[in-house]
Amino acid sequence: MRILVTGATGLIGTQLCSHLLLKGHSLNILTTKKPWQTDNTNSQVFHWSPQNMQIDYNALKGVDAIINLAGAKINQRWTTKNKSIILNSRIQSTSLLFDAVKQTNQNPHLINASAIGIYPSNFQRQYNESDTSFSNDFDGDVVRQWEDQAKQFEKLSCKTTILRIGLVLSNKGGAFVPMLLPTRWGLGAWFGKGQQWQSWIHIDDLIGVIDYCLQNQLESYINATAPNPVRQRDLIQTIARVVGARQFLPGIPKFLMSTALGEMHKLLYDSIYVKPQRLLNSRYAYQFPELTSCVTDLIDKDK
After folding, report:
1. Could you report the per-residue pLDDT of 64-74, keeping only the tens digit for each?
2. Which residues, at least 6 apart from 100, have a Cβ–Cβ distance to it below 8 Å?
């Protein structure tokens, strides 16, 4: 299978590309970075500029699937400028891909990244893919617009999969590393009372889910999370238990993080309990369904 990947140099994209190449697939990689090339003979690198709506149409030649991971990081201060970058980086890239597919008269399978931030924060409610209650906050609005753009591919008779990704745990970056480092020294801390639900997924399982959707041609919305969410406090305490460190700090008050991070601090205090019902129904075999095995694996790999 020849697969077009965007966001290939990010945390998820880097591991995904390695996995797909090991599985024998050929890759077309779209990047904004110049110069950037690969020595792998099964990979070809093409350049694009979503901001300027420019793309090398050769990237679409012979493509069976597109995995779109492109988008500016959302965990940055939500200034007016950064909000525009966060939104436009997703909408423009997905729109440009849509126009390119339409121009080249192809119908590849689209797997488009999304996020569980589309669901409203709620300490009691559990969400699955059938829920249509969406967040009206900035992050929810970004995700909703992103998904709407991706759904346009259905007009081109493209199979369309939208992955609502939870908290990705990896020892290469993301949220896990800054949680692990202070926790090793007994300085890990949750936010507020730590009772907010964290819907997480080991990065190996996220890569597995993407591959599973490719092979089984799963369509529509998929909650890309592990089947067992945990309270944020339990997440920190699990890390502490695995590394053998006692914890001494209380929860971090919301006003402190509001002062430090501005509006973006809400991501630390939101509670979103997500069930990956479609993956469970289709019997996806999780490598790390429980948090303890996930954390143990990541820490062992880091030794």
Report:
1. 999 999 999 99
2. 55, 57, 59, 60
